[in-house]
Write a structure and sequence with these properties.
With about 425 residues, the chain is mainly alpha-helical. About 70% of the residues lie in helices and about 0% in strands. It has two domains: about 190 residues, ABC transporter involved in vitamin B12 uptake, BtuC, CATH 1.10.3470.10; about 140 residues, Orthogonal Bundle (Arc Repressor Mutant, subunit A), CATH 1.10.10.10. It has a two-stranded antiparallel sheet.
Length: about 425
Amino acid sequence: CGMIGSFLLLRKRSLMGDTLSHATLPGVGIAFIISVLIGGNEKSLPLLLAGATITGLLGCFCVLFIRHNSRIKDDTAMGIVLSVFFGAGVALLGIIQTMPEGSAAGLESFIYGKTASMVLQDFRLLALVTSFVLITSIVLFKEFRMLCFDQSYAASQGWPVKRLDLILLFLVTLVTVAGLQAVGLILVIALLITPAAAARFWTDRLDQMLLISGLIGGLSGWLGASVSALAPRLPAGALIVLVAAGFFILSVLFGSKRGLAVRSIRQHRLKRSVGRQHLLRALYEILEADTRSEESVTIRAVPFRQLRGRRTWSDANVRSYLKYAYQLGLIEAITKKDLILLTEAGLAAAVQVTRNHRLWELYLIEYADVAASRVDRDADTLEHVLGGKIVAELELKLQRLRMAGTALVPPSPHPIQPGD
C-alpha cells in the first residue's frame, strides 16, 4: 500500500484510492447475490474479491471517462464516482439483508476489516498481490516516474501514457482489494496515502520515497497487529491506521527534508547568515564612505551607533549578528566604547559580499530594467543565494559595462546613505 500509494500521491490522485475502495462494495454485494442464485458458497472469498475487483476497475474507468470527455476535474469526478458506487453498495447490502438465503453479517468484514481472523489463505493472497505489485513497479519504475512528474513530456515522446495510467490504476485496485481483508474499505485509503505522505517529508528522490513508504506501511501493519494481539478488544485495522498516523506525525515534525523542526532550524540558520552578510556589507560601506576614491578600503574601528543607523535593526538584532560574526572570527571583540573592528578575514568576507550585491544590482539595472532607486531592495532578496558560478556569469555579462574589472568591488549604482 505504501509503495503504490506514493505514485498516487505524486499523481495528485490521493482521492482515487478512496474512490476505488468504495467502488468495491457493490461488487462484493453483486458477487454475493450471484453466488446465492447459482447455489454456490455465497461467502466464497475468491468470488467476492473478483466482484470487488471488477467494480473497482469499473469505478476507475468511470473516473477516466469523465475526465477525458468533460471539463470536470479529477477531484470532482472521483467524488461523483465514490458517492454513486458506495450508495449502490449500501443499497445492495440492504437487499442482501432481506434475502432468506444469506445474511450481510459476513460481508461486514469488507467494510471494517478482519485482520485478527485472517487465515493462511488470506496471507497467501496478500503475499501474491505484494509480489506482483512489487515486481511490476520495479519493471515499470522509469515509466511510472515519468508519468508522475511530466505526463505531457512522456506523451510527446511517444510513451503510452493512457496505457501506463491504466496499469497503475490496476495495481491500485489489486492493493485495495487485498487490503479489504485487513482493514476494510473505509480504512484502506489511510494505508495507501499515509505512509506515502509520511515518506515525502524524508526525501526528494522517488526510489527512496518508495522504500521509506513501504517500510512505514510494513511497520504500521506489524506494530498495529502486535498491539491488537496484546489487547484483543482493540480492532487491528484501526490500530494499524493509528500507528501509520503516528509515523506521519513524527515525519511532519522531524522529517529530514520537510519536517517542521528541520525547516525551523534551516530558517534560523538562513536568517543568521543573511544578517551576517548584511552586517558585513554595512561595515564595508561605512569604511568605503570614509575612504578616498583612489585608495583601497582599510580596516578601522566603526562605532556601534554608526552601524546601527545603516539599517532598521534593533539593538538586540545587531548584537546578535555581531556575536555570530565574532564566533566566526570575522570581527574583533567589541570594546567598552562600542567600537567594532573587522579582522582580515572579516574584511575579505565583506568585500566578497558587497561585490556580489553590486554585481547583482548592475545586472538588474542593465538586463531587468529595474530602477536604480529600488534596485538595492530587489538585490537584497537574491544576493544571498549567489554561488561562485553565478557570480562569474554576472561578470561576463557585465564586461561590456567595463565596471566589473575596474575595481575589486564595483561602485554602487545608487547613492549610499551614511549612518547616523
